[in-house]
Specification:
CATH superfamily of the largest domain: Ribokinase
Number of strands: 19
Radius of gyration: 26 Å
Number of domains: 2
Oligomer: single chain
Distance between the termini: 16 Å
Number of helices: 20
CATH class of the largest domain: Alpha Beta
Length: about 525
């Protein structure tokens, strides 16, 4: 499923017109699709009192079509019209009036009194004011009406707010929001999802995102390099499990992780790789930590490494790791290593030394923090690397602020992947994955339950486990993000968002893979 910018969507609309798909036909398709989604979202439609905010452009036109269908299905619909739409010029408004749908024209602040009364009895509000075309700040009557709806929502949380295409005031490209932009419960986006829906703060205003098919041929978006990760795509990448397999069939992962203060990170990373299906996982860690971890992690094998101090890997241990790497498909490095001086020297020797002959790499956490301090580190690092920074680590790697990263997650990740020629996984709500050729994929998952210590270690392990089974770096990264996100959703559904632990994901990961294979996701 392609993700588009406003300009790309406008280009697709022009192409539709060129091949005979008129604006009126697409509007009819869009309105019907929106109405069907509203009915699905709200449930028993003949019990709904739906107040629709209708803007002056095509977004408002889509809303008028939706209103007609919802009224026909038994809902009690009221239309509040912002901007002149004359029946003689607007067939959709004429059809709404013919059905005796309440239509209130709102031209000035005084006209909002009727809206205030309508909100008292409404069960849902549909925001059809502005779509992808609105980029100016909201002011005047538009800011007033959205502010009024927002205040009613605060007093009556059960009022369901549904945005048509985008919440009005949300930038389709950046996700920046006008102060008046509503916090929607659901956004029904048309044709293709818009990039801004997956970037903060936009993703927080959009609520649950549904993509409505309005009849646009998919080939019109073939050249767009941004995609939303879907179940079908992830399913197509799951490694096979032949009956005659042995553990070597499913790949071998060497995990270099853990330190005296971060013992659990090693356990979580190794377990993530095993739960993703890797055939063999070996943990290389400080020798004094090995007995502690082995008491919990019984299925892994171990490479105890010499120490510079209690629980701290010594710099010369890099040679020992390099000697072992020939037997492994993937090296996962960084989870919980710490940043002591011996650790820094160890990582430099392992990744950037002249003797380094490295397999596929997954670099996380402290490996990234150490690289961030090395000028032009990417020029010295092998290209077959997957980097998995959280936003703070990404800011350090690119030499900017956390705020700059979060304001343009897709743009920052893409620029970095192209410059570094590495696969970049920018973690967070709606994780962004970009390959060295600029292919961008975004996870649909934004789950606050995953915002807890250790979940990133699990993700790094899952990605390494998939890479060991033969997936290309970009595919392993994106598929791993998808499995990890769905596991988080499954745990959250059972336990709730608060109190979810990283280790809760581990037994659920195989269940996600099983359900995906059985097409139950």
């Amino acid at each position: 499923m392609k993700i588009v910018t406003a300009e790309q969507m406008q280009r697709i609309d022009r192409e539709c017109a060129r091949i005979g798909l008129s604006t009126s036909l697409l509007m009819e398709n869009a309105g019907k699709a929106v109405a069907e989604e509203v009915r699905r979202i709200l449930g028993t439609i003949d019990r709904q009192v739906i107040l629709m905010l209708i803007g002056p452009g095509n977004n408002g036109g889509d809303g008028l079509v939706a209103a007609r269908h919802l009224q026909d299905w038994g809902a009690q619909v009221s239309l509040y019209l912002f901007g002149k739409r004359q029946p003689a010029d607007d067939s959709n408004l004429k059809l709404a009036r013919e059905r005796h749908i309440t239509c209130v024209e709102v031209a000035q602040e005084a006209d909002l009194n009727n809206l205030d009364e309508g909100l008292v009895s409404a069960t849902a509000v549909v925001d059809a004011l502005f779509g992808t075309g609105k980029s100016r700040p909201l002011a005047g009557i538009f800011a007033s009406v959205l502010g009024m709806v927002s205040r009613v929502k605060e007093k009556r949380p059960g009022l369901h707010i549904i945005a048509l295409d985008l919440p009005s005031g949300l930038n389709a490209d950046s996700g920046a929001v006008d102060p008046a932009c509503l916090y929607a419960d659901d956004t029904i986006t048309l044709g293709f999802p818009k990039l801004g829906l997956f970037n903060p703060p936009g993703l927080e205003r959009a609520g649950k995102i549904t993509i409505a098919d309005i009849g646009i041929p998919s080939y019109l978006a073939e050249d767009i390099p941004a995609e939303l990760i879907t179940a079908d795509w992830a399913r197509s990448l799951l490694p096979g499990r032949p009956l005659g397999a042995n553990k070597g069939t499913f790949g071998k992962v060497l995990v270099v992780a853990g330190s005296i203060n971060y013992i659990g990170a090693a356990y979580l990373a190794c377990s993530g790789a095993m739960r993703a299906g890797a055939g063999l996982v070996t943990l290389a860690t400080a020798a004094s930590l090995q007995p502690v971890i082995a008491s919990k992690l019984t299925e892994a094998t171990y490479l105890p490494l010499p120490e510079s101090g209690p629980g701290i890997i010594s710099a010369p241990a890099a040679r020992q790791v390099l000697q072992e790497l020939a037997g492994y498909d993937v090296l996962l490095l960084g989870c919980g290593l710490g940043q002591s001086q011996p650790t820094i020297e160890f990582v430099k020797s392992l990744l950037l030394g002249e003797e380094a002959a490295l397999p596929s790499l997954v670099l996380d956490a402290d490996a990234l923090n150490i690289l961030a301090k090395i000028p032009a580190w990417w020029q010295k690092l092998t290209d077959n690397a997957i980097l998995t920074p959280h936003p703070g680590e990404m800011a350090r790697l690119v030499g900017t602020s956390l705020e700059d990263v979060q304001s343009d997650r897709a743009g920052v990740a893409k620029k970095a992947a192209l410059e570094w020629q590495k696969t970049v996984v920018l973690k967070g709500a709606c994780t962004v994955i970009v390959t060295p050729d600029g292919q961008l994929r975004i996870s649909p998952v934004a789950n606050p339950g995953l915002a807890s210590a250790g979940t990133g270690d699990v993700l790094a392990g899952v990605i390494a486990g998939l890479a060991a089974q033969g997936l290309a770096p970009g595919d392993a990264a994106a598929c791993g993000v998808y499995l990890h996100g769905r596991a988080g959703e499954m745990v959250s559904k059972k336990l709730g968002d608060a109190g979810m632990l990283a280790s809760d994901l581990l037994p659920v990961l195989p269940r996600v893979i099983k359900q995906l294979k059985e097409e139950k996701i």
